[in-house]
């Protein structure tokens, strides 16, 4: 029975070849940060308010000019095509049906035009600056013409985190399956059959780049992991010349960086440690969140991601002052287990749990979730 997100994780583990499951599940180095995200969320507790009329609970929020069904968005995840061909289209469609924003990764192997053609709803583009700024400028121009409504610049990937599971599994770029991996693929026919007639899954489709990435040049940059390490605060002005819509920074943890972002005119922040996939020594995001919120002093919306697995977790972040939460791995588990319906179910599970949590806390609107609910004794 798929009652909760942990059930989905276990089911995804059974469905997927080990190299693919580990690629999604894993984190950097000792994976301390992956664990910390979840453990620290478990330590936060909330105090309910009783005898309030909660006959109708509304989880919707309004952010960056759109109404969301609940304070949840799909986090950008790259290389989703490893799960099934056209994975990003499936994710975007499921998100649309659930009134949930979808954030398309720069490392997608479905071009942004195709997503725009096949899915409506709230679409954002996540940006990595790779292989030269001109590639980013072209991506941004395309996103603007296709009505992607916000740009998320990910700032915690100057270099790729060292994911030891991937190294051990031979999950390198370009992907070179070993005999053991091929055997593992054979043992997961429901996954393998999805690629029938489409060729094996690829990190970035170097053989036929136009079909496998946002652009041929980007596919090459992704294949070579050509991240622009010189990207710095001064370059935000360059980004602004090309994008006048909402600009969010994803991967902010330090209060001083948060303050600087506000000063630079950024429109929103995503407190993130990349789901523990980059720098292993950082705090959990729920621990870093209060410092960032203090620094921002309500000037711009602050979102958070990393380890959110229950609707109750979302209520905790919102009570602290976050405006919404992004979920990464859970959506991929839903996708692996049951495609579009699986992603919808995962989002439905989050929404139902949040709605029930709010009713039990005595809150009928998301805006009511405030510091008043925080159980400070637990600090
Ligand atoms: C990611 N993440 C990510 N972030 C980003 O900005 N661009 C990207 O391309 C990716 N790719 C990616 C792939 C996979 C498989 C995962 C699991 C994660 C990070 C992602 O946006 C988000 O920060 C975390 O996934 C949040 O943590 P949880 O919800 O997965 O615990």
UniProtKB/TrEMBL annotation:
GO terms for cellular component: plasma membrane. Transmembrane segments: none annotated. One of its GO terms (molecular function) is FMN binding. Its cofactor is FMN. PROSITE patterns: FMN_HYDROXY_ACID_DH_1, FMN_HYDROXY_ACID_DH_2. The active site is at residue 274. GO terms for biological process: aerobic respiration. SUPFAM superfamilies: FMN-linked oxidoreductases. Residues 1-379 form the FMN hydroxy acid dehydrogenase domain. FMN binds at residues 76-78, 105, 126, 154, 250, 272, 305-309, 328-329. Keywords: Flavoprotein, FMN, Oxidoreductase. Glyoxylate binds at residues 128, 163, 274, 277. Pfam families: FMN_dh (PF01070). Belongs to the FMN-dependent alpha-hydroxy acid dehydrogenase family. This is (S)-mandelate dehydrogenase. It comes from Eoetvoesiella caeni.
């Amino acid at each position: 029975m798929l009652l909760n997100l942990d059930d989905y994780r276990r089911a995804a583990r059974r469905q997927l070849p080990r190299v693919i499951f580990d690629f999604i599940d894993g984190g950097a180095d000792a994976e301390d940060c992956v664990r910390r995200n979840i453990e620290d969320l478990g330590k936060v507790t909330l105090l309910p308010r009783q005898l309030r009329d909660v006959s109708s609970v509304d989880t919707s929020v309004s952010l960056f000019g759109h109404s969301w069904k609940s304070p949840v968005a799909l986090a950008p995840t790259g290389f989703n095509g490893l799960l099934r061909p056209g994975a990003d289209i499936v994710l975007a469609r499921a998100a649309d049906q659930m009134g949930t924003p979808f954030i398309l990764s720069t490392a997608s192997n479905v071009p942004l035009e195709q997503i725009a053609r096949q899915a409506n709803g709230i679409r954002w583009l996540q940006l990595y600056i790779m292989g030269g700024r001109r590639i980013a400028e072209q991506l941004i121009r395309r996103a603007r013409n296709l009505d992607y409504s916000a740009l998320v610049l990910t700032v915690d990937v100057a270099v790729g985190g060292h994911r030891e599971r991937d190294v051990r599994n031979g999950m390198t770029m370009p992907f070179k399956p070993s005999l053991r991996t091929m055997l593992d693929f054979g043992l997961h026919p429901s996954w393998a059959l999805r690629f029938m007639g489409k060729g094996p899954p690829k990190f970035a489709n170097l053989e036929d780049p136009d079909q496998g990435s946002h652009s041929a040049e980007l596919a090459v940059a992704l294949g070579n992991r050509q991240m622009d390490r010189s990207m710095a605060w001064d370059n935000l002005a360059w980004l602004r010349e090309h994008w006048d819509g909402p600009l969010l920074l994803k991967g902010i943890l330090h209060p001083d960086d948060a303050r600087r972002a506000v000063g630079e005119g950024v429109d929103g922040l995503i407190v993130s440690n990349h789901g523990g996939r980059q720098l292993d020594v950082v705090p959990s995001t729920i621990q870093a969140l209060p410092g960032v919120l203090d620094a921002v002093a309500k000037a711009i919306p602050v979102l958070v991601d990393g380890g959110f697995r229950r609707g109750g977790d979302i209520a905790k972040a919102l009570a602290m002052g976050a405006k919404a939460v992004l979920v990464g791995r859970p959506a991929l588990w839903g996708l692996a287990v049951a495609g579009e319906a699986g992603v919808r179910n995962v989002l439905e599970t989050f929404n139902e749990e949040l709605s029930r949590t709010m009713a039990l806390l005595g809150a009928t609107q998301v805006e009511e979730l405030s510091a008043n609910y925080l159980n400070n004794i637990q600090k």
